[in-house]
Design brief:
Blueprint lengths: L2 H19 L8 E5 L5 H9 L4 E4 L2 H10 L4 E4 L8 H7 L2 E5 L2 H10 L7 E7 L15 H9 L4 E8 L7 H18 L3 E3 L6 H6 L4 E4 L1 H4 L10
Parallel strand pairs: 1-2, 1-8, 2-3, 3-4, 4-5, 5-6, 6-7
Helix pairs in contact: 4-5
The structure holds pyridoxal-5'-phosphate.
The site of pyridoxal-5'-phosphate has 13 residues, from strand 8 and helix 9.
Length: 226
Amino acid sequence: MNAIADNLQAVRARISRALEAARRDDKAVTLLAVSKTHPAAKIAEARTAGQHAFGENYVQEALEKMTAAPDLEWHLIGPLQSNKTRVVAERFQWVQTVDREKIAKRLSEQRPAALPPLNVLIQVNASGEATKSGVSHRAVESLAKAVAALPRLRLRGLMAIPEPGAPRERYAEVRAMFDGLKSQFGFDTLSMGMSDDLELAVAEGATMVRVGTAIFGERQKPRAAA
Ligand SMILES: *Cc1c(COP(=O)(O)O)cnc(C)c1O
């Protein structure tokens, strides 16, 4: 096996152990491989090892990789500016960082009719700090209502990035937000947890973890956001 296959197996084992510890179903978490800054060859290795869903932060970089692997499932997990919504609506299967109605509207209007609705998550602020991106606890329900009404989007749930070293209560707060809206909006996805904190996130109900470093190794300095 190559190193990436080994790493993937180790990450999947960590997820399984965390699910078992939380007495959750062993299929309850999807693994998103975060491939930002890593070359297409590494994505190909991960794919050979059975990985299907990939997350990218920078639109331009993602488009290049998609051209080489159009049949994989691509998630945008970085900030989205309104001048990039068209290509994102055309090429991605998921956008996890919706935090404004304006962006959601554009994505819905620009999603091609021939494609299924675009899967979206609302990014929530896990820390309550004004400096962090994501919607506040107070604003999430009204944004969810607006997004759920858009015809070409499928609102699947919430995404959060607790700050490094955040206490478990931060994760629990996100979970409470998710549980509070779940039945109203038919949520099935809580995207939370990365290389260093996936156990905590799985313990607090994450259904998707976004893992980069533990699969692909350390990143080089990222490109300027595109
Ligand atoms: C880079 C990134 C990840 C992956 O982080 P690692 O610590 O490398 O696992 C997950 N989510 C988001 C939003 C990211 O930007």
